[in-house]
Amino acid sequence: MTVSILHRVTGSGMATVGSLLLVWFLAALASGAQAYATFRDVFTLSDGRLNVIGWGVGVALTFSLFQHMMSGIRHLVLDTGAAFELKLNRRLARLTFVGSTILTLAFWLYVGTK
User: How far is 110 from 63, CA to CA, in rounded Å?
Assistant: First the structure.
């Protein structure tokens, strides 16, 4: 049940937060250099690296993406008629959290090395 609810929450969250950030970014870009600098300064430090807010938003959106993806893959397996046994179903549900956490860490470790 938790995975199903989280699947809906992550989908809605990505759509809402992503849309708001995109609109803010485009409005700042269209409004000129000062507005864009304000947008950029919310998420980055003076040397261009992400600050705490930038990391927080980035990690949250990345985790949401990977959690939604892993849950979607689980639902595809269930749609084939497989994995309805309670023990296997619970194991796959837990693996969505493990997989999304590992993918998020791997993504940000990769980004951090670039």
Answer: 15
